[in-house]
Amino acid sequence: MKAIKYIIIVFIVAFIAYNSVYFKKLDEVKASLSQKEFNAPQYAAAFWNNKLIPNLDKAIDLTKLKTMLSSDPAKTFDVYSHALGIGNLRYFLIRGKGIIESVNENDVTVMLNVDSSKQTVTLATEYIFGNAVRDASGLININEFTNTMDFNNVSAEINKIIREKVLPSFKQSVKKGDVVEFTGAIELNKEHLDLSHVEVVPVQVGMSNEK
After folding, report:
1. Domains, the chain, ranges and CATH?
2. What's the predicted TM-score (pTM) here?
3. Less CB within 10 Å around the terminal CB: N or C of the chain?
């Protein structure tokens, strides 16, 4: 009887111990912790205020960039573009000035101040998405992120800042004939370069008193 009781006690203890201890893969634990700890809105706001805005003076003039891309695209991409992934899509931080040619439902067409040729670009005002602003400055280190979800959420939050804080006042007041100054990001395909239609995602945009 004592032996049977002993076996029963050992079985009960083993059963309790088995159900009290479990194991997870280390990468699963890290992923779970990162999802709980990472705050995409907070990261995006810090990046915007502490890194992106203070470095806007490094943006290249869009007219100058288009000229360099026409004459030596390979060197221009190497020197001025950024990308955090492998592929042909590259991003530039640019600035420009021009006259509003048309105010459209989803964007604004701007005639750049160029003496020798007619050059237009569009400023996106409605559909703000993608990674252009996140990647154009080259100031984000992809190694800071433990997973692609956090990385992509940063783009979403940056684009949200643009939609909610940068564009509303501009959209309310802009009209044809206004002179506008802007700084922003553009996406270009290195392998299939097309400069006939360049869309700018604005980071800063406002009216100028100068013609």
Report:
1. 2-207 (2.40.50.420)
2. 0.80
3. N
